[in-house]
Amino acid sequence: MKLFLKITIPILVSLVCLNASPVATLEKNVVAMVNGVKIQKSELDRGVKRLFPARYFHKTVSDDKIKVFEKEVLDGLVDRELLIQYAKSIDIKVSQDVIDKGIEHAKKNLKSTENFNEALRKAGYTLKTFKELYYNEELLKKLYEKKINVNLSEDDLLKYYEKNKYKFKEPEKIEARVIYVRIDPTIAKGKSNAKQRIQEAYQKLKDGEDFSDVAAKYSTAMSRIKGGDLGYIHRGMLEPGIEKKAFSMDANTTSEIMEETIGFYIVKVEKILEPNQLPFEAIEKKLKKDLKKKTEKERKSNLLKKLKSTAVIVK
């Protein structure tokens, strides 16, 4: 009897729960429901067209790719609806005056009411649905200012800088020139021809000719037009074998001929810049922009995570 109760009671509880909250089914042309609010397929289609208009209209994207785009847009629409509902729940409002002024501004930009109405028609909106759209956009702006926006002070930025100084270092760099002769894989003597050319270039250097002049004459790289000048480069910008050699060289020295699968190289290192700690003043403006974006993204993500934990979303 105890065994029977252990088995049947959980089953009965689950049946009661299922009966109390039946799985919602979507109506035709409805792609999702967020707490009972419908997201229409027309909204999804507009979002996809805005994201990839040319490729979408000309059907140059595969069905699988379009499905990926549709999922991305639908996820965004669901997030948007959650935020709109949240804004309303905390009593954020937009006055009718703001809506009216927005409509008049749009008409003014389009030169006439007729042009405005035609633009609505082409976009698939009625005046009513456009007003709803505009209202929601203004609602989201107010929500952003109230719950997501951050204003970072100089003190906030300084604290972050001091705590994360390692992120604001310029890596070691070298100023270099290169003579590169490509091996042409389409001809039988591609490698031997390239080797002969690089050897001639190397001999010219040994004879005392200027590196930039030799590079301009013998190199097959685009840098030849600047005498082989690569400017300042850091690790990760050259072929691994060439990079290893270049970063082990002293300033004002020239390498021997180096061979890689794609061709032959001669490198001249002109200057070496050691790793450098960037001062706060040099990175303050960019740091403020990046940190604001990062912090606001985290705030929005955390808010959506909280909203989704209690929402009923059907796709």
* Average predicted local confidence, pLDDT: 88
Order of helices and strands: HEEHHHHHHHEEHHEHEEEEHE
The Cα radius of gyration reads: 32 Å
Considering DSSP H and I runs of 4 or more, what fraction of the residues is helical? 55-70%
Task: Please specify the SSE layout and strand pairing.
Layout: H1 2-20, E1 30-34, E2 37-40, H2 41-51, H3 53-57, H4 63-89, H5 96-109, H6 113-123, H7 127-148, H8 154-163, E3 169-170, E4 173-182, H9 190-206, H10 211-218, E5 229-234, H11 240-246, E6 253-254, E7 258-260, E8 263-273, E9 276-277, H12 280-310, E10 313-314
Antiparallel strand pairs: 1-2, 1-10, 3-9, 4-5, 4-8, 6-8, 7-8
Helix pairs in contact: 2-4, 4-7, 5-7, 8-12, 9-10
Structure description:
The chain is of the alpha+beta class and 315 residues long. Among the domains are: 23-76, no CATH class; 170-274, Chitinase A, domain 3. The chain contains twelve helices and ten strands. It has helices at 2-20, 41-51, 53-57, 63-89, 96-109, 113-123, 127-148, 154-163, 190-206, 211-218, 240-246, 280-310; strands at residues 30-34, 37-40, 169-170, 173-182, 229-234, 253-254, 258-260, 263-273, 276-277, 313-314. The strands form three sheets. Strands 4, 5, 6, 7 and 8 form a five-stranded antiparallel beta sheet that branches. It has a three-stranded antiparallel beta sheet with strand order 2-1-10. Strands 3-9 form a two-stranded antiparallel sheet. β1 (30-34) and β2 form a beta hairpin. α4 crosses α7 (127-148) and α9 (190-206) runs antiparallel to α10 (211-218). The longest helix is centred in the last third of the chain and has 31 residues, at 280-310. The radius of gyration is 32 Å and the shape is elongated. The two termini are 42 Å apart. Mean pLDDT is 88; it is low at 1-23.
